[in-house]
Write a structure and sequence with these properties.
Layout lengths: L1 E7 L4 E11 L2 E12 L4 H7 L4 H20 L4 E6 L1 H5 L3 H12 L3 E3 L2 H10 L2 H4 L5 E7 L4 E7 L2 E8 L3 H5 L5 H15 L6 E5 L1 H10 L7 E2 H12 L3 H6 L5 H4 L2 H15 L3 E3 L5 H14 L4
Parallel strand pairs: 1-4, 4-5, 6-9, 9-11
Antiparallel strand pairs: 1-2, 2-3, 6-7, 7-8, 10-11
Amino acid sequence: MRYAAIDIGSNAVRLLIADIIENNGSVSFKKNTLIRVPLRLGDDAFLDRKISDKKTADLIKTMDAFSKLMEVYKVTEYLAYATSAMREAKNGQEVAKQILDETAIEVEVIQGQKEAGIIYANHSDQTIDKSKNYLYIDVGGGSTELSFFSMGEMWASKSFNIGTIRMLDNQDTEETWNDMRDFIRENTKQFKVISGIGTGGNINKLYKLSEEKDKAPLNFGKLKALYNYLTSFSLKDRINVLGLNQDRADVIIPACEIYMTVMKWANIKNIYVPTVGLVDGTIQTLIEKNFHKAG
């Protein structure tokens, strides 16, 4: 059995096709194919509050390709979610309807709160030590989702309009940064020690660059050193010398700034990077829906 997850993000659009494995009553998944298309819808959405005709056409072509791939891979069920760019664009719902009409793919434009829930649904059980306190930090192109966990339970979660594309386009506001700082301070004051859990393409790439082994956490000092190293190269050299993808080479800098700022405000020394994202959580959502109905 195969499931698929589509994530229409502000920087890129992703398709994950996963094989579902049933073993002695437990159900898990193995990634089969992951495709990422750098459409960067956020540039339209955050500057013009509208997805342009050109980007809409490219998105429909991408969805059509995804639809055909799902058919070839014999995918039995899928979920398609659109995040910050589509929810901010005035024509987001209209574009979703066009996708449905032309490709038969049903896209749900989700709020930040639901996005955060889907992201951590995938790996909270594996990652969380019930006796510790955690702050989940998911940085995307258009928004940052923060979720606090204590004793294995989530007790505060909020989405902020601070993201990498938004920062590159100077569409982040001081007010939103202040809101995020206040939210973090309010929810960290009673804890001595909090660990971070970072998700999103940029922290995954930063973790890879750090060469940490065996899922060891990334400490603040190493993240700051990586940031200094990356900013010492021009954008061109980050692509040509460091070998970063063109659509990763610019956003990785503001992403680093967001993670470091959140860690500083929450007094987080270490951040764990399980290298998963919205598509992984979406597959897990399908598993929960179909296999855990009785439970």
